[in-house]
Amino acid sequence: MSCPYEYISDARVSELLSWQSVFEAAERALESVSTGDAYQTTRTKLRVGQGFNFVNVMTGYLQDEKYGGLVNLFFNPFRGNRNLEPPLPVVHSDITLIDENTGVTKAIISGGEPMRWITPASSVIATKYLHRKSKEVLAIIGAGNQGRIHAIALQKYFNFSEVRIWNRTASKAEHLVTELNRGLNKPIFVNTNSIEGCVNGADVIVTATHSTQTLVQKSWIKIGAHINAIGVSSITTELDADTYRACKIYTDYKEGAEVELKHIKNFGVQFEGQIGDVITGKIPPPEENAITIFQSLGMAVQYCAISRLIYDLHSAK
Q1: Which GO MF term does the entry hold, naming one (predicted)?
Q2: Burial call 204-217: b when 16+ CB within 10 Å, e when fewer
């Protein structure tokens, strides 16, 4: 008996996607929370037994002719996987794309590549609407998967003169810089020896680490800079409290912020609103000299948009 639905692998997703199409999908998803076309749950976490294995689930429906879809996203960090023989990836993710008229599964899409593309694409759109000054220097804190792909996506869209990369293990940043400079007429990507040296004078900053310690201090950040804060923890922040107090803070969706960002509100700050409300004009953009933060959580309708894009491209080919 043949499988009643498609399985679309990470390798296939990588073949299908282009940055321009993903930027467009990300903007529609962010906008949808303001236009009333987004229906989604916040992240639900289940601990599996007494260990450190978790299942995270988000469900969403995006009502849109081009990017509409109904999905369940499963994001499962199982720390013991690295100790298996042979070892497995610590994180496994799948997206179930469902027919919104019948409830029947249309496709299972491996979640690794969609997550790698949609997260930086959302940061690009946030930067587009929140940062109103020239964009010459980009600072990336963290040379892991999200640091790498943010460097690629933001450089693709904005064409910075210099992209600085810092990582706690310096050799990892050096290797990434070498990779990203390969084939360029002149080197644009540089590694820095300190976080302060990376951030100082940067127009746009990305924090994308799993650090349990505060990394960035307010005194290092220039007036008018924009920060995409990707590494979200329920108890710690990569930015210090003074940075949050000095900035205008925006989120992808308010329901998620109310659940997952209480520790940031405890700094005595208020969130300005959702990026989608800036896109639609429901709230004004920040002043040119404001320091802004996009506190990225990730939301289900982002995966609706990118899953529909992937499914349609896959079906057409």
Answers
A1: thiomorpholine-carboxylate dehydrogenase activity
A2: bbbbbbebeeebbe
pTM of the model: 0.95
Q: Using alpha carbons only, what angle is made at residue 231 by residues 267 and 300, rounded to the nearest 5 degrees?
A: 100
What domains are there in the chain, each with its CATH number? 6-114+301-316 (3.30.1780.10), 119-299 (3.40.50.720)
pLDDT digits (tens, 9 = 90+) for 25-49: 999 999 999 999 999 999 999 999 9
Specify the pairing of strand 226-229 against strand 69-77: unpaired
Residue-averaged pLDDT of the chain:
95
Q: Quote the Cα angle for 277-305-256, to 5°.
A: 50
Of 65, 70, 60, the residue nearest 297 (C-alpha): 60
Residue 90: phi and psi, rounded to 5, are -65, -35
